């Protein structure tokens, strides 16, 4: 018993340190790790059971709504949900003895800490992606067979799709892998499960998306959105930061520091490729790598006709997860507990980053609440003007902060709207409240 405890004391310590970092990540940020997408997510959660939008599947807002039953608002519900998602991954991998040490190390990477601390759909996607990988590996290893295997694998894919539409890449990936290995026993389960999940996607489109937003496809599908040269550069930058185990955010204005950030990420990718090529991988490990690479490639090519933010750690992390698991398993087999040094370094760099760039969400929250109360907007709809083409400006960050107090924030982009006294602008808000800014996100 004592020997078993000593064996796990290091990963347990990393888990506690990671948990502390997640809390610090959203407390020492002026908006509590909120983005323009978060405004929509919290507003959707607040509006349920009324469907506010179909741009995002209902899964994540529904869980936020559920957590508000603990007498907390949507913002704090999203933070409690983020911590719960992290703990779910740790507990699940430990209980199932499924890549436990690799999950502990992956979740301790600063990029994962940032995901769990943010109000993102990826936060909820990660633990269900882990469950999906567990079910898929059980099918590959023939521990799950027949109707039960098809049912569980189909359900895991459907659950993922109800959190993020990019789960479609896993659906198609499972199908392609099944066709590729059509002579193996597990192939029929993979193919049938993916077909069932794809059938659900089709029904979802006709009976949910079209019901509430008949123009969704025409609004978001457009050929030739970006030139290949731009997309390739963004792909390199996204991969280099996603697979940098220490720093996942580069300076958008460039600079010498970015050379080191992209360099470490690039070297990590090269090391991954070398180890994957030199190691005899199991069928499960091959599936994990295939799904990860396939998801990344799909995320790249879909940009040609579907509007996305530039690929970064946030969009790629669901597909990076299976790659990290295989990578850390290979490394662990070679250097054992020394690998936890990666966690220590990543958490240490993350702490320095957070501390040097800290804002103060709790103080800003007080100012925002006082301002909204003064304007009689604590419980009413808030219309906030912002140029729709610029969602990274300081102006939209003001709306993000206000949404943590009152999630009923609607962004308007017509310049004529600013003539309406009921429409807020960044200038109007900043003139009446003080915000302790954070230099970095």
Q: Describe it for me?
A:
There is one protein chain. The protein is built from 19 helices and three strands. It has helices at 2-27, 36-47, 59-67, 74-95, 100-108, 110-117, 121-140, 146-161, 168-180, 187-212, 216-220, 228-242, 256-278, 283-301, 313-335, 340-356, 361-374, 394-403, 426-430; strands at residues 382-385, 409-412, 423-424. Strands 2-1-3 form a three-stranded parallel beta sheet. Helix 18 (394-403) links the parallel strand 1 (382-385) and strand 2. Helix 2 crosses helix 3.
Mean pLDDT: 89
Largest sheet composition? 3 strands, parallel
Q: Strands across the major sheet, in which order?
A: 2-1-3
What percentage of amino acids are in beta strands?
under 5%
Percent helix among the residues?
Answer: 55-70%
What is the terminal-to-terminal distance? 43 Å
Global outline = globular
Number of strands: 3
Number of domains: 2
Radius of gyration: 22 Å
Helix/strand class: mainly alpha
Order of helices and strands: HHHHHHHHHHHHHHHHHEHEEH
How many helices does DSSP assign?
Answer: 19
Provide the low-confidence segments as ranges: none
Salient structural properties:
441 residues; mainly alpha; 3-stranded parallel sheet; globular
